[in-house]
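wait is this the right file?? whatever heres the structure
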C-alpha cells in the first residue's frame, strides 16, 4: 500500500462518525436535586396530596437515592425509566425541566407527579 493510500485510510478512520440515536430519543440526565411527589388534590382541598414515600433525589450521573437505598435510571428523550434500586420498574414522562408524570404499564399517564424541589444537598 502506498504512503498516500495509507494516509487517506487513516484520515477516513479519524473522521467523526455520527452517533445513532438511542431508541426513544437522545440519552440524558435529570437535573440534580430532590424530587417531591404528590397525587392531584380535589376541588375542595389542596391542589396536591404529598406522597413522600415516592420521593427520590437525583445525585450524580444517572443515579438516585431514596431512604430505602440507591439505584439508577435511564433518560431517553422525555421518558425516564428506573432501572435498578428501590423504585426499579417505575416509568415517568418528563413534561418540563423539573416536572415528571408517572406512566402506567399500558403507557397512559398516571396520577402521580414529581417536581424537583431544589438542588442537591448533602
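ok assuming it is, sequence goes like this
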Amino acid at each position: 500500500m502506498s504512503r498516500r493510500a495509507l494516509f487517506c485510510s487513516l484520515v477516513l478512520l479519524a473522521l467523526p462518525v455520527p452517533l445513532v440515536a438511542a431508541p426513544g430519543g437522545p440519552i440524558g440526565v435529570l437535573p440534580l436535586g430532590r424530587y417531591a411527589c404528590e397525587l392531584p388534590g380535589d376541588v375542595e382541598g389542596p391542589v396536591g396530596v404529598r406522597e413522600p414515600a415516592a420521593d427520590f433525589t437525583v445525585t450524580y450521573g444517572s443515579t438516585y437515592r431514596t431512604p430505602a437505598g440507591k439505584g439508577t435510571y435511564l433518560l431517553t428523550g422525555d421518558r425516564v425509566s428506573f432501572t435498578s434500586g428501590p423504585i426499579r420498574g417505575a416509568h415517568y414522562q418528563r413534561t418540563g425541566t423539573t416536572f415528571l408524570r408517572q406512566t402506567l404499564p399500558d403507557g397512559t399517564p398516571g396520577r402521580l407527579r414529581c417536581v424537583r424541589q431544589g438542588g442537591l444537598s448533602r
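Residues 58 and 64 are 4 Å apart (CA to CA). so i think its the right one actually
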